[in-house]
């Protein structure tokens, strides 16, 4: 048991084998978010290392990063910036491609969302290979932002994502880890 704020966050994460495809163990946070203590514990634990840091914005990655990132931004008393899949944001955007297992995907941010030198905290639910969060960091930097840190509820350390972000010079904060994929 790994108590966080007196709450066992890991116990409330549901694991679903072979979703969305065979061989993937999907770590489902909806069961954590729907628990009144679970949601609060997760947000509090994501936030506490950064209470004294200089942060101008919290950025969240679509879609589960919006739920957590919005709550983190509200808790810190900062604004929230969405990083979305290609074609979803209405105004002028900056994009960043990243490699998937098969093919390429693109994430986007509004071109005017961040000012030069603004300090940004990046939030998502889970880090696996670090492809998505790595692209988000590149995007935030391209927009002129300085990425203070990246925080996730779940780490899959065997996939090396947290190490990849650290090698990009970004602090990484995660709450629980699961072995394997
Ligand atoms: P990656 O880019 O490989 O670090 O993958 C991270 C993104 O994919 C996050 O937005 C996650 O929500 C999602 N993801 C990857 N693997 C899993 C998994 N095993 N369970 C749930 N979500 C996952």
Describe the model.
With 181 residues, this protein is an alpha/beta fold. The protein has a domain at 53-177: Rossmann fold (3-Layer(aba) Sandwich). Helix content is 27%, strand content 35%. It has five helices and eleven strands, in the order ββββααβαββββαβαβ. It has helices at 30-33, 36-47, 64-76, 131-142, 161-167, and strands at residues 3-4, 7-8, 14-17, 25-28, 57-61, 79-85, 93-99, 104-110, 119-127, 146-155, 171-177. The two termini are 20 Å apart. The site of adenosine monophosphate has 17 residues, from β4, β9 and α4.
What is this structure's SSE topology?
Elements: E1 3-4, E2 7-8, E3 14-17, E4 25-28, H1 30-33, H2 36-47, E5 57-61, H3 64-76, E6 79-85, E7 93-99, E8 104-110, E9 119-127, H4 131-142, E10 146-155, H5 161-167, E11 171-177
Parallel strand pairs: 5-6, 5-9, 9-10, 10-11
Antiparallel strand pairs: 1-2, 3-4, 6-8, 7-8
The protein binds adenosine monophosphate.
Quick rundown:
This protein is of the alpha/beta class and 181 residues long.
Shape, per Cα inertia axes: globular
Kindly name the structural category.
alpha/beta
Strand content: 35-45%
Annotation, overall tally of beta strands: 11
Question: What's the multimeric state?
Answer: single chain
Main sheet, how many strands, which sense, barrel?
7 strands, mixed
Output the CATH class name of the domain at 53-177: Alpha Beta
Integer average pLDDT: 96
Notable characteristics:
single chain, 181 residues, alpha/beta, Rossmann fold, two-stranded antiparallel ribbon, 5 helices, 35% strand, globular, binds adenosine monophosphate
């Amino acid at each position: 048991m790994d108590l966080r704020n007196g709450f066992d966050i890991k116990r409330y994460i549901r694991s679903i084998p072979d979703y969305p495809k065979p061989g993937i163990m999907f770590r489902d946070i909806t069961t954590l978010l729907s628990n009144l203590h679970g949601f609060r514990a997760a947000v509090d634990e994501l936030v506490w290392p950064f209470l004294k840091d200089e942060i101008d914005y919290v950025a969240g990655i679509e879609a589960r990063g919006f739920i957590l990132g919005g709550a983190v931004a509200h808790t810190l008393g900062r604004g929230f910036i969405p990083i979305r899949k290609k074609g979803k944001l209405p105004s002028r955007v900056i994009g960043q491609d990243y490699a998937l297992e098969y093919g390429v995907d693109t994430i986007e941010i509004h071109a005017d969302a961040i000012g030069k030198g603004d300090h940004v905290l990046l939030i998502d639910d889970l880090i696996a290979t670090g492809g998505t969060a790595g692209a988000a960091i590149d995007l935030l930097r391209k927009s002129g932002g300085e990425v203070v840190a990246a925080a996730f509820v779940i780490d899959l350390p065997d996939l090396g994502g947290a190490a990849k972000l650290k090698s990009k010079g970004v602090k990484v904060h995660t709450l629980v880890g699961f072995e394997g994929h």
